[in-house]
Amino acid sequence: AQSVTQLDSQVPVFEEAPVELRCNYSSSVSVYLFWYVQYPNQGLQLLLKYLSGSTLVKGINGFEAEFNKSQTSFHLRKPSVHISDTAEYFCAVSPGGSYIPTFGRGTSLIVHP
Amino acid sequence: DAGVTQSPTHLIKTRGQQVTLRCSPKSGHDTVSWYQQALGQGPQFIFQYYEEEERQRGNFPDRFSGHQFPNYSSELNVNALLLGDSALYLCASSTYRGGADTQYFGPGTRLTVL
């Protein structure tokens, strides 16, 4: 079985500052990794995913994440955030080829003007 | 392309009642998965339907059941509602061979049990 730990429940940051949202996972098999964003009262939108290949993954809205197998981490970064990035962010993991991701508890990103 | 659609948007029920939630998958998708997202938590997998059969199931009681129709749309039924069933119910569609990386989520149905 796999599990996901999002180390910060809430991350406050000022507009135009860089941000990192941390995610660690545990799994005994190779995995696919995902970051999703959820805006208030909406469903989940896929930001980016790691399936294989390059460990640096670029996604939508200027976000990127780096897969670190030795540290079992998949941290999400953005060099300069906007007010509109305020949302809940979920890290998820699924065994390679599986259809069912396991989600973390989420990190609330709060961008202040 | 309308994407994944769910109905209703909101629903209020009382304990002991039964509820049915509906989901239409994204065009070209043949697989529907249902998730429960309690307040302040990440989504938890309930079950997945493909070819009108339940293919995988998470750790949810038999009160939770589902159905998939020939047009790939799906229903989630919950019987004997408990206060703890209050949550956002998310439907996600994908292609069976594509796996989790092809999954698209709908906006969800907010269920409140009083």
Task: Report what the structure shows.
The complex is a heterodimer of chains A (113) and B (114). Chain A is built from no helices and 12 strands. In chain A, the strands form 3 sheets. In chain A, strands 2, 5, 6, 10, 11 and 12 form a 6-stranded mixed β-sheet that branches. Chain A has a 4-stranded antiparallel β-sheet with strand order 3-9-8-7, with no helix packed on it. Chain A has a two-stranded antiparallel sheet with strand order 1-4. In chain A, β7 and β8 form a beta hairpin. Chain A is an all-beta fold and 113 residues long. With 114 residues, chain B is mainly β. In chain B, strands 2, 4, 5, 6, 9, 10 and 11 form a 7-stranded mixed β-sheet that branches. Chain B has a 4-stranded antiparallel β-sheet with strand order 1-3-8-7, with no helix packed on it. The model of chain B has no long low-confidence stretch (mean pLDDT 93). The chains are: A mainly beta (113), B mainly beta (114). Chain A binds chain B through residues 4, 32, 34, 36, 41-46, 49, 51, 90, 92, 94, 97-106, and chain B through 4, 31, 33, 40-45, 48, 56, 58, 90, 92, 94, 96, 99-101, 103-108, 110.
